[in-house]
Design goal:
With 181 residues, this protein is α/β, with parallel strands linked by helices. 37% of the residues lie in helices and 20% in strands. It has seven helices and seven strands; from the N terminus they run αββαβααβαβαββα. Strands 1-7-6-2-5-3-4 form a seven-stranded mixed β-sheet, sandwiched between helices.
Length: 181
């Protein structure tokens, strides 16, 4: 289902937007990693998924999964819910399992879409997940408005490597890297 949806979405993005991808993910195909991106629109997960090589599991707010058809769809493309109101240990465990299975997952460290387009405060969950799974974090920045026929840019940065020593500061470093892209 994922590959089918990605193929259709990719064609639609190329028809309706002037898409530019800067950079590439240089990590081995057999290694799990986390993509962390700014979040400006509900299409962001689709946009990222269309223009990266490997299938991505997205963490999404639980409310998206509570609607029958939408919930089925997100699960069928390897999405999984997170309860943003509490420390969701189930979502944390799922994310770590994905990374430890040498797969790719993505999340938006701001925790919600930016209403202004400005980069918001980053929450610490991505650092916790990546450090527990010993997985690199790939910074990604989305630029554009998603207005039809406008330019949309996906910028991919060099991976950051969380360690025990930097797990408290890596989200600040990640935010700075994305801001400067």
């Amino acid at each position: 289902m994922y590959k089918f949806c990605r193929a259709i979405a990719r064609v639609l993005f190329k028809i309706f937007y002037r898409v530019k991808v800067e950079g590439e993910i240089t990590l081995p195909e057999d290694k799990g990693y986390m993509i962390c991106s700014n979040h400006i629109h509900m299409f962001d997960p689709v946009f990222i998924g269309c223009f990266t090589k490997r299938p991505i599991s997205f963490m999404g707010k639980k409310e998206l999964f509570e609607k029958p058809i939408l919930g089925w769809f997100f699960r069928s493309i390897d999405g999984f819910p997170v309860d943003r109101e509490k420390g969701d240990m189930g979502a944390l465990k799922t994310a770590i399992e994905i990374l430890n299975s040498n797969k790719v997952m993505a999340m938006f460290p701001e925790g919600t879409r930016s209403k202004t387009g400005e980069l918001g405060e980053f929450k610490r969950g991505a650092a916790l997940i990546a450090s527990r799974a010993e997985a690199p974090i790939v910074p990604v920045k989305i630029e554009g408005s998603y207005k039809l026929f406008s330019k949309m840019t996906l910028k991919i940065g060099e991976p950051l490597y969380p360690t025990k020593e930097n797990k408290r500061t890596i989200m600040d470093d990640l935010r700075k890297v994305i801001e400067d892209m």
